[in-house]
Amino acid sequence: MKKNRRRRFIVEGNFQTRFILRFVLVIVGATLLSTGALLAVFFFKYQYGEADFQNLIIMVSPEGRTDVASLFQVVLIPILVANLLVLCVIIPYSLIYSHKIAGPIYRLEQSLDLLLRGEMDFIIVLRRKDEFKYLANKMNALIDFMRRNIGEVRLSYRTIQERADKIHTMLTKKPVDAEGLKKEISELGRFFKERGKPFSY
After folding, report:
1. Among the listed residues 20, 16, 4, the one whose alpha carbon sits nearest the alpha carbon of residue 102
2. Which of 17, 19, 49, 176 is the least crowded, having the fewest Cβ atoms under 10 Å away?
3. For the chain, what is the largest distance between any 2 Cα atoms, rounded to a whole number of angstroms?
4. How far is the C-alpha of 188 from the C-alpha of 161, rounded, in Å?
5. How far apart are CA 108 and CA 132, in angstroms?
6. pLDDT tens for residues 66-125?
7. Is the pTM of this model over 0.85?
8. Are 72 and 55 a contacting pair, CB within 8 Å?
9. What count of other Cβ atoms lies within 10 Å of the Cβ of residue 104?
10. Burial of 64 (0-12, 13-18, 19+ CB in 10 A)
11. Which H or E element spans position 87?
12. Nearest C-alpha neighbor of 106 from the set 77, 130, 86, 134
């Protein structure tokens, strides 16, 4: 059986784009909310606590160098840098994780297309860390079930066709071999009885 392995990193562009955007929006929204809350605390503390963000802070380095900055700069710049770092981590991570979802969906869609074309000589192979492995296993079981039962149906069709042709030949001959005809009909009836109900696997 052939194993179709996925090579492309982006397999469902629309799905992965929507997934990444929603994932990033949730993270960014939560980050902005927490940042806004923090800034609000500082704002009210220094605005209504008889101080404001224009107050200067003198920072002295271990080497003795001094630097003057406003409290707003001291608070805002680290927060913005932290948010940018979070985005730099979240975007690649969301792309990788979306691939673990979109890849199996794409593979399952391909497999359904193959089944609709009557092709069943394949198995679904997912990567080790992909999602939906349980669904792939069930699909493989379904494919195997269909393959075996369709093979059974084809074999039964050939057997019935051969018996029917033989009975037809016997009926067209004169005189009709009644005993032979009875035997063939009996064999055909025994075949149906032994076969049991269809799709019995």
Report:
1. 16
2. 49
3. 123
4. 10
5. 10
6. 665 666 666 677 777 887 888 788 888 877 887 788 888 888 888 999 988 888 888 888
7. no
8. no
9. 21
10. exposed
11. helix 71-116
12. 130
